[in-house]
Amino acid sequence: DFLANIAMNSNPEENTTTPSWELKLANFIINNASANIKTPIQSHNLQALHVKLQDIQYPQKQKIEYQLDAKIDDATIISDGLLGYEPLDWGGNFELNHPNLIHYNPYLKPNFLGIIHKGSLHVKGSGQFKDSDWRIQSALGVNDFLLKAPDNSDIAGIGNLDINSINANANSLEINGISLAKPYLNVHIYETMETNFNTLFPKSKESDEESSDSSESAFDLTLEGIALNEGIMDFADDSLPLPFKVRIQDLGGEFS
Questions:
Q1: What single string gives the DSSP state of each residue in 196-215?
Q2: Are 126 and 138 in contact (CB under 8 A)?
Q3: Cα–Cα distance measured from residue 30 to residue 193, given in angstroms and rounded to the nearest whole number
Q4: 24-80 per-position pLDDT tens digit
C-alpha cells in the first residue's frame, strides 16, 4: 500500500528554498532479494532477504516498525523491532546463526594472527541504541571451535560453550550462567621466555606513548556461575634447564 501527499508552495513572495512535501507509506516490503557485497577484504553473498517496514511517515520522525530476515554467506539473521532516525534510535530483537566461522578469518588480520580452524556461533537476544548509548541482553552458544597459531599448531578450543545471559553496555559487561564443555588450552613457553600466545599478535613498535589517558572511564567486567567439564590443558616449558611437558585432563569444577 502506498500513499503520498505532496504540497508545493509556489508563492514567489515567500522565501522557500525547498518544497514542502509529505510521504506516508503504510507498508514497504522486499521479498527474496539477493546481492553480492564486495569489501576491500573479500566478497559476501546476501540471499533470501526479506524486509517489511510499516507506517513510514516523512518528515515526521516517529519510529518505524520493521521485520528482517536474511542469509549472508552461511549465516542466517532474523530481527524485528522499532527503528527511529534523526537521531538513530533502535530497539528490537535479533538472532544470528553462523555454522562456519572460518569465513571471517581475513577480518582478524592484521591485529590478530590466529586462525579459526572451525566453529559455529548462535546468538539470540535484544538490544537498544539511542544517542550513542547502547545496551545488549543476549544468550550465546559456541560449538566445535578450534583456534590455531600462525604455525598451524592448536592453541585453544571449545567443544561447547553456552552462556545464559550477557548484559553489556559501553561501560560494563556482565556474563551469567557459563557452561564450558571440553575446553582445550595449549601453553608453550619457549627458551626466549615468550609463549605461543605471543605469536597471536603482531609485535608492537616501540612508542613514546607508554600509557593511555588515565582519565578514561573504568570498565566493569562481571563473570558469574561458571561450570567447567572435561577440560584438557597441554603445558610445555623450554626455558627450564630440563625441558618440561605435561598434559592435564578431565579438568572440571564450578566457580562463582
A1: GGGGGSPPPPP-S--S--TT
A2: yes
A3: 58
A4: 888 889 999 999 999 899 899 999 999 999 888 877 767 899 999 999 999 999 999
